[in-house]
Amino acid sequence: MRKSPVNEGGKVWHKVTMSVAKNDAVMVRRAVQSLHCCGIESADETAEREQLDAYFEDAIDAAALQTHMELIAELISAAGGRQLKLGAIEAVPEEDWAEEWRRNWKPVRVSKRLIVCPSWEKYPGAPNQTVIYVYPRMAFGTGSHPTTQMCLRLLELYTPRGSRVIDIGSGSGILAIAAVKFGARSAVAVEMDNAAMDNAHENCKKNRVASRVRIVCERFGPQTRGRFDLGICNMLAHEMLPLIPDITRVLSGKPLITSGLTEKSVADFRREMRRLGWRIEKTLRDGEWLAFYATHRQG
Fold this sequence. Notes:
Blueprint: E1 12-21, H1 25-33, E2 39-44, E3 49-57, H2 62-78, E4 85-93, H3 94-104, E5 108-109, E6 114-118, E7 130-134, H4 146-158, E8 164-168, H5 174-181, E9 186-190, H6 194-206, E10 213-216, E11 230-234, H7 237-240, H8 244-251, E12 256-262, H9 266-275, E13 278-286, E14 289-296
Parallel strand pairs: 6-7, 8-9, 8-11, 9-10, 11-12
Antiparallel strand pairs: 1-3, 1-4, 2-3, 5-6, 12-14, 13-14
Helix pairs in contact: 1-2, 4-5
């Protein structure tokens, strides 16, 4: 097991590098997420394979993590997948991770109107364009993942002016920030991870919306009560499904923008949404990923 130098007193992450067949990538991501992975980066290796870099808290024992990853590789093979190649587990200081992003991450044009830009760059946007600045820490939501981009496109279409929005599982805060920039009066960003909350606060300040986005560390408690005009939830299916009854109660007759689902994982989601009175009005697709705008019928 190879480890890189560790920054004294700073945040350190376990980085697991994998080479996977593209057809198996969703299955591998799901399995890795079950180990409480904090973030996954991907890059093409060949036309048929991609590299996944998964990051875990350093509180997780590296030897145990190695054992779990080897078990995942065996299970992928047993399920008919192609070989999952595991690299060494490295200890990566958070500063090194961020510096890697600085070298490789450039502004992302999500739509004609919307650009997501690294916080250290200044984007010369036109008067009719909206620019969101994001600093890349481990929180999910840099604007590069298809699920984030589809949610941003749906927010551009459906955010009511002067509305109050709730973003459940906000990560970096990018979707709550976008809602406010698209005309919402205010947003509540719900996040249970302290590192993600810190990153969201940082991004709200950078985008000058800190007074309009409230970041809370609770799932469905006192700070998420009140009337909301739109909900957002970008989570993997197995995380989102148990939350749908609470999301329905919080929104009660108001619409929801959601992603994090694939064709393989969406069936249970559709059934639960129908059972609770939801109607899917618009669907976006990007590769294997899906996003929805849904309305709710009370009663």
